[in-house]
Write a structure and sequence with these properties.
Four Helix Bundle (Hemerythrin (Met), subunit A), alpha/beta, Rossmann fold, four-stranded antiparallel beta sheet, about 500 residues, about 15% strand, four-stranded parallel beta sheet, 15 strands, single chain, RNA-binding, elongated
RNA sequence: GGUCUCGUGGCCGAGUGGUUAGGCGGAGGUCUGCAAAACCUUUCACAGCGGUUCGAAUCCGCUCGAGACCUCCA
């Protein structure tokens, strides 16, 4: 394969040739979820996109260590219940252990991700399990003189950092712009400048997650976990760091600053950022109140949903857009994805029973090359999918005996379709309920009776069978070889 | 206000100086007892106005519009 993988590096804003620091090893760190609520469509996007990247890199022969963290520190504040004492008391009695909350949502997250056929990362570290590492990181920053203490909290000194480094290198910001910010931020009184960020926070009395440290009983700053865990598992400099575009600033910017100070080098070679899922043109977000949880999508239980959509439909929907573009949610778009996916997966089945012909009417090698070109061009899954649909057309024409494929070409096509559809895109057959033997046997019997009726031109009987089955959401498809059936969703 | 991104046909969504994206939908046809499925053909396009160019949806400028980040956020 002459084509080499090119990826868009947020650091340069350009597509760059991908060259791992220590081939064939690749280190990839992706910002994972904060475990305080169910995952929504917006969370599915980075998971699926980086799953695609993980899968493709492995396919190319790289040995990837994929780290995706669970954030469970710093955001889990004990909301003080307002109102009567009674309510507050009850809330306290029923209050769950923080780790119980985290475990609950992590389990649910895994359920969602498994359904989406997202591969589990190599390591899934919890921020709460790496407090010591984070304290060490903060110590280093303090030793280098880039942190100052106020009331037991430590803040990163951006002004000092900016003398020798460019804070804003990733998000294209300049210190002067940041300084001109007029915004009043909470806790700003403790900071020298509004744009400084906390590396250690002293815990307020109501804060339930707290650890001892040289500075105070508290918890690490919001950006410390990724720096500390990235270094721990991938080294002081690693290949890929990914996450949503909304994390570019300040989260990833802060990570660069922290690591640069602590370890003397910029931590990441390639920064990759996926774009947002939008709904009615606006970002889907928990705080915006327009987020639809994955459980709701899979069950259809949400007023914004016209019906339920299967996990594979969601996966396909996400892969049909390039990861750097926004993706707009709508029922219409999801239904289109659902139908397209069905056509693709049906062709995958048809592929298995294709018969070999004498000659070939298609250039399978060329098609395969195009698939690699698409993926090598910054993981362009939508273009890859368009080529796979070219494959679908080929499969169906051969099946219809309107074209033929030689033995070698048929084998290549099978190989290619499987590798790209199942292995790289990670699409899979949905579990169709009722595929057990009994139903299958009963269906065969019914179809047999119907076939006889058709032979005898007893269309009243054959149509009754078809219509009655249709009421059970079973559709019949006739072809020259016989009839087949499937559940309609 | 600052920084940045985007504006593609009925919908979603690629592409980016000259050649078909693709999916869904619509229309016509083939096949079928009729359907469905499948296949073939087909319709609809690059926000607006200028500029560069032999040639621009693609480059540049302006206008209009939308969005993201600047605060936890995937």
């Amino acid at each position: 394969m002459e084509n080499k993988l090119h990826i868009t590096n947020s650091l340069s804003g350009k597509k760059e040739l991908f060259e791992p620091i220590n081939p064939p090893h690749v280190g990839m760190y992706v910002c994972g979820p904060t475990a305080y609520g169910d995952a929504h469509l917006g969370h599915a996007r980075p998971a699926v996109c980086f799953d695609l990247i993980y899968r493709y890199m492995q396919h190319l022969g790289y040995q990837v260590r994929y780290v995706r963290n669970i954030t469970d520190v710093g955001h889990l504040e004990h909301d003080a219940d307002e109102g009567e004492d009674k309510v507050a008391k009850k809330a306290r009695l029923e209050k769950l252990e923080p780790m119980e909350v985290v475990q609950y949502y992590v389990n649910r997250y895994h359920q969602n991700m498994d359904a989406l056929n997202v591969l589990r990362p190599s390591i899934e570290p919890h921020a709460s399990g790496h407090i010591i590492e984070q304290i060490e990181l903060v110590k280093k920053i303090q030793e280098k003189g880039f942190a100052y203490e106020t009331n037991g909290s430590l803040y990163f000194d951006i002004k000092k950092y900016s003398k020798d480094h460019h804070y804003g290198i990733l998000s294209g910001r300049r210190l002067e712009d940041l300084m001109s910010e007029t915004r009043q931020l909470e806790g700003q009184g403790e900071k020298k400048s509004s744009y400084d960020f906390a590396v250690w926070k002293k815990a307020q009395p109501e804060h339930i997650m707290r650890w001892p440290s040289p500075w105070s009983d508290g918890f690490p700053g919001w950006h410390a976990e990724c720096s500390a865990m990235g270094v721990k598992y991938l080294g002081e400099e690693f290949d890929i760091h990914g996450g949503g575009m909304d994390l570019l600033f300040p989260h990833h910017e802060a990570e660069i600053a922290q690591s640069t100070v602590a370890y003397g080098k910029s931590p990441v070679k390639y920064w990759l950022h996926n774009n947002m899922v939008t709904i009615n043109g606006k970002k889907m977000g928990k705080s915006l109140g327009n987020a639809i949880s994955l459980f709701d999508i899979f069950s259809g239980e949400n007023k914004l949903m016209e019906k339920a959509y299967s996990p594979m439909t969601i996966r396909f929907f996400i892969l049909q857009a390039h990861y750097r573009s926004t993706l707009d949610f709508s029922n219409e778009a999801l239904q289109a994805a659902e139908k397209g996916l069905k056509r693709l997966m049906q062709a995958m089945q048809t592929l298995e029973k294709l018969e070999v012909g004498n000659s070939s009417d298609f250039n399978i090698q060329g098609l395969e090359s195009k698939c690699y070109e698409a993926m090598n061009d910054d993981f362009n899954s939508p273009v890859l999918i368009s080529h796979l649909f070219e494959g679908v057309r080929i499969i169906n024409s051969v099946n219809d005996k309107k074209a033929s494929l030689s033995t070698t070409d048929l084998e290549s096509l099978k190989q290619m379709m499987k590798v790209f559809t199942l292995e790289i895109l990670g699409l899979q057959e949905e579990d169709t309920d009722g595929q057990d033997e009994l139903i299958s046997y009963l269906m065969d019997t019914l179809l047999d009776i119907r076939q006889n009726a058709r032979k005898n031109k007893d269309f009243a009987t054959s149509d009754k069978i078809r219509d009655d089955l249709a009421k059970l959401n079973i559709s019949i498809k006739d072809s020259k070889e016989g009839s087949s059936w499937e559940f309609e969703k």
